[in-house]
């Protein structure tokens, strides 16, 4: 029995060492960026809401290169409620996309599905009101699936591929983990884990807090 | 090397079997109860807000014995915003306690600390308005720490003690885990894991969905 225990202990240590070797550098924290409700507008919709020839006024660069918060906001109207002052993020895109938390959805009385950015077919709708007009959006309202932006260099460091889904963990009194976090890799992406306000609040996170990747096979 | 592999495999299986033996019946799901923002009132505050001699009108029994949702609601006022129609839960208590999500806190412009129910010393304040008067609450506004109600019988089944903190896990597309969930054991408690709306939305949970206990030592 003593011999058996020694073997068990030895094998356990070997397996642990192997696991460490196979584990990428997941101990490096990833900073959190919290996405409040916002909207990306198409050029056509911008013209309807703010007038022909209108262009957005940048008030703040976002962490991802080229993205910015505009001075302009819109009002969203749903069957049960209204959200005022919804920030427009620029530049204009090929199509309009509204990103809400599930809490926001309850306020409007709609149930935006959890979707990766750009995947809006059959998603929820809402009415958008601007100073010069309104747009009835049949689809384009989503809960953006949590995701991590990273460069190829970061991806090598974490041993991750574009499109993978990973689990992140947060420490602290409201600590926990979130599964199915989409990894998005592009050369100019800056390392940032985008969560919505529900997710950040549930885990007690604020902007810039660090989350860690769970080793593969963990939950 | 083949022999080594056989030993490794055998030991792995033995260790897994031992782990299963030591694990309590954590595979039994615990139903989720989602707490929307609400208020418990003291008798004195009820009299100020609704008039002397007023008593609450029950509209719905809650799952926990004796607790009910009242017909009456109040308005909460903070430095940055207002929350209308905040439900009163009865019966009246020894002191007033407001339970908000962190999202609600941002709307009011206050930062309620995460606290176990009853632990209100030094917590946030707000103004409460009712049809007959207002109360300026200096403390008593909290984010209720996530917790599980269970009977002694359930506690034996899960091998848990009153006051323990456990980790729960949710499956699904927005799956994940929440650590530091307080276990509360009383003879008349019905098995229910109370989460606030931020926590439920972050994990994609609705009322009655099942969560599972993580084995001890897991995250």
From TrEMBL, chains A, B:
In Gene Ontology terms, what is one molecular function of this protein? acyltransferase activity, transferring groups other than amino-acyl groups
Per the record, the coiled-coil ranges are none
Q: Does the keyword rRNA-binding apply?
A: no
In its UniProt entry, the species of origin is given as Acetonema longum DSM 6540
The similarity comment for this entry is: Belongs to the PduL family.
- Report the EC number(s), separated by commas if there are several: 2.3.1.222
Recorded catalytic reaction(s): these are: propanoyl-CoA + phosphate = propanoyl phosphate + CoA
Q: Which UniProt keywords apply?
A: Acyltransferase, Metal-binding, Transferase, Zinc
Q: Which InterPro entries match?
A: PTAC
Q: Which cofactor does it need?
A: Zn(2+)
Q: In which pathway does it act?
A: Polyol metabolism; 1,2-propanediol degradation
Protein's recorded name: Phosphate propanoyltransferase
